[in-house]
């Protein structure tokens, strides 16, 4: 899928669309099993799932593999402080072909990464408390344009969950070292 596809936040991924990627050590089941794939074999993700990430590299690879399938979606990222939300965004950006470094927008609220015809918006709502503030920083203009927008701490503005989005949750695994990543496409919100 190219970045010129006419996808909006309400776009519903179709079976076989854009999920092909042999990038990174992600196994067929999305669990990060390096070497589990034959050379050139595609990784395909469903619209929802759960996987265990044992390393930052596996978290990056997971996001990189999902990015082509959800290249024009609103992505809501939840997880405790330090769980890897910004790291996941870095992988997603790489999956879209963006080479620039990705940084947490904790203090800037909004970072925009653009290279050629590729673009990604990254918001951190930790210090935001209302839908009006999101309107003021241009979130709905971004969504209306069908540009990819990844939001950390979306629970700060609960009404965002009513929009069509990819919900991604990162949690600490029982061992404290790895992460459990769950994702679900929610075409009607919630």
Tags for this model:
190 residues; Rossmann fold; 7-stranded mixed beta sheet; globular; T6A_TsaE; metal-binding; magnesium; tRNA threonylcarbamoyladenosine biosynthesis protein TsaE
Provide the CATH topology: Rossmann fold
What is the count of distinct domains?
A: 1
Strand percentage lies at: 15-25%
CATH superfamily: P-loop containing nucleotide triphosphate hydrolases
How many separate helices? 4
The main pleated sheet reads as:
7 strands, mixed
Mean pLDDT: 78
Name the helicity range. 10-25%
- What's the alpha carbon Rg, rounded to whole Å? 15 Å
Q: Which ranges are low-confidence, i.e. pLDDT below 50, for 5 or more consecutive residues? A: 1-44
Q: Between the first and last Cα atoms, what is the distance in angstroms?
A: 27 Å
User: Would you count the extended β strands for me?
Assistant: 7
Q: What order do the strands of the largest sheet run in, or round the barrel if closed?
A: 1-7-6-2-5-4-3
Label the overall shape: globular
CATH architecture: 3-Layer(aba) Sandwich
**Protein structure class:** alpha/beta
GO molecular function, one term: metal ion binding
Keywords: ATP-binding, Cytoplasm, Magnesium, Metal-binding, Nucleotide-binding, tRNA processing
GO biological process, one term: tRNA threonylcarbamoyladenosine modification
Subcellular location: Cytoplasm
């Amino acid at each position: 899928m190219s970045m010129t596809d006419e996808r909006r936040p309400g776009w519903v991924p179709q079976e076989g669309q854009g999920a092909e990627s042999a990038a990174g050590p992600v196994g067929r089941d999305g669990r990060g099993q390096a070497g589990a794939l034959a050379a050139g074999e595609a990784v395909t993700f469903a619209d929802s799932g759960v996987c265990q990430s044992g390393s930052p590299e596996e978290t990056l690879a997971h996001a990189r593999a999902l990015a082509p399938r959800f290249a024009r979606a609103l992505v809501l990222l939840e997880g405790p402080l330090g769980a890897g939300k910004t790291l996941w965004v870095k992988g997603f950006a790489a999956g879209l072909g963006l080479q620039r470094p990705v940084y947490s927008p904790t203090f800037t609220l909004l970072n925009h990464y653009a290279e050629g015809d590729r673009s990604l918006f990254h918001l951190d709502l930790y210090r935001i408390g209302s839908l009006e503030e999101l309107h003021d920083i241009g979130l709905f203009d971004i969504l209306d344009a069908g540009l990819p927008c990844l939001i950390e701490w979306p629970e700060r503005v609960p009404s965002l969950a009513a929009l069509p989005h990819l919900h991604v949750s990162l949690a600490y695994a029982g061992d404290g070292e790895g992460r459990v990543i769950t994702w679900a496409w929610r075409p009607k919100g919630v």
